[in-house]
Design a protein that fits this description.
Layout: E1 5-9, H1 14-26, E2 31-34, H2 37-47, E3 51-53, H3 59-65, E4 69-74, H4 79-93, E5 96-99, H5 104-112, H6 114-119, E6 123-125, H7 133-145, E7 151-157, H8 164-173, E8 178-182, E9 185-189, E10 195-199, E11 204-209, H9 214-222, E12 226-232, H10 235-244, H11 254-265, H12 273-278, E13 280-288, E14 294-302, H13 304-320, E15 327-328, H14 331-335, E16 347-351
Parallel strand pairs: 1-2, 1-4, 2-3, 4-5, 5-6, 6-15, 7-12
Antiparallel strand pairs: 7-13, 8-9, 10-11, 11-12, 13-14, 14-16
Helix pairs in contact: 1-13, 5-9, 7-9, 8-11
Length: 355
């Protein structure tokens, strides 16, 4: 497919609307879509873009909604519930599938279906936003620097706030353990049980292991069997996670989740434009091989939602132009370790490794 129509589903969510606005500013016209007609049409009118309305629970309407579409940029989470129906529809229609998830289970499910997507002639590439473009590209860069690496550690220092969609996903997963990859297999660990200090470029910061998408995707991108992803957090957060770990199952109870969701819904939809402009994200990575050799690198870029809109649209446009290897893909597998460097404000440096 070349010069195919791009459809942004979930266009009235915080990130979906940001993608729509950036697309308008970049001078191209994706179709905006979602299940709520009034909300979809309001966003479409705001940016002068075409729209369609359909839900994911009506197969006939979903197939009609993808008629003539070459690329779907799926922005409506939680993706653990929404990715499956949209992927099935993309298989039926022949549209390439991209989304902005960071959910490990979604990455693993899509990876397991790679042969099915390849047979349908479509690319299936979840995680084309801040989850996981910068970290995936950093992992691939480090793998190139040390090809026989057997261990990978990544660190993320977030800049800016959180959208409703991201917060909803967090609420749905508060009762779960953290995760790492060991010997090629994803393993659960207790929240807060694994921590370290990381220098993101301005001195050491406390960080703890989190179940970030790269525990899945970095393995598929690099083949490195042992992977840990850390997030910079206040030191007290590590202790808090350890103390609440024995009772975290309470967060999975319906009444507790509904209470937390009501709080999420009462908050702003996401960071303001001013906050996004001020925000910066920083990443760190290290690889090691069996001989003890190490390589480190750092990456800095725009605030996470800004970078998500930029990378998601760029990947969608590449897919629409025909640059879409079929089957399951990660950003670095499809477009290389330097893909993230195409975006204004992103810089990468190889860091000195102390003895």
């Amino acid at each position: 497919m070349t010069d195919s129509t791009i459809l942004i589903y979930g266009a009235y969510g915080y990130t979906g609307e940001l993608c729509a606005r950036f697309a308008r500013d970049q001078g191209f016209e994706p179709v905006l879509a979602g299940r709520n007609r009034a909300k979809v049409e309001a966003v479409a009118t705001r940016y002068g873009l075409p729209s369609r309305t359909f839900g994911l629970d009506d197969k006939r309407a979903l197939d009609a909604g993808l008629d003539g579409v070459g690329v779907v940029l799926h922005c409506a989470g939680p993706f653990s519930r929404t990715a499956g129906p949209m992927l099935d529809a993309c298989v039926r229609s022949g549209a390439h599938y991209l989304d902005i998830t960071g959910e490990m289970e979604v990455f693993e499910t899509v990876a397991a279906g790679s042969a099915r997507f390849a047979a349908a002639g479509i690319m299936a590439m979840p995680g084309v936003g801040f989850d996981v473009v910068p970290s995936d590209c950093l992992a691939a860069h480090l793998k190139e620097a040390l090809p026989d690496a057997s261990e990978l550690e990544l660190g993320i220092h977030f800049g800016g706030g959180m959208s409703h969609g991201t917060a909803t996903t967090v609420v749905e997963n508060l009762h779960r353990d953290s995760a790492v990859r060991r010997g090629g297999t994803i393993r659960s660990i207790k929240a807060g049980s694994l921590s370290r200090t990381i220098d993101f470029g301005s001195g050491p910061r406390a960080a703890m292991a989190i179940p970030w998408g790269d525990v899945s995707t970095a393995y598929h991108s690099t083949g490195i069997p042992n992977i840990t992803v850390y997030a910079a957090v206040p030191a007290g957060a590590i202790l808090g996670s350890r103390l609440t770990s024995p009772v975290k199952s309470v967060f999975g109870l319906g009444p507790v989740r509904r209470l937390l969701q009501r709080w999420v819904d009462s908050q702003p939809a996401g960071p303001t434009d001013a906050k996004r402009k001020r925000g910066r994200t920083r990443l760190w990575g290290e690889v090691r091989n069996a001989a003890g050799d190490r390589r480190q690198a750092r990456l800095e870029g725009p605030e996470g939602y800004t970078l998500t809109a930029l990378t998601a649209l760029a990947a969608s446009r590449r897919a629409a132009s025909g640059d879409a290897p079929v089957g399951f893909q990660t950003p670095s597998k499809a477009y290389g370790a330097d893909f993230v460097l195409e975006f204004e404000g992103v810089v990468r440096e190889d860091a000195h490794v102390p003895f």
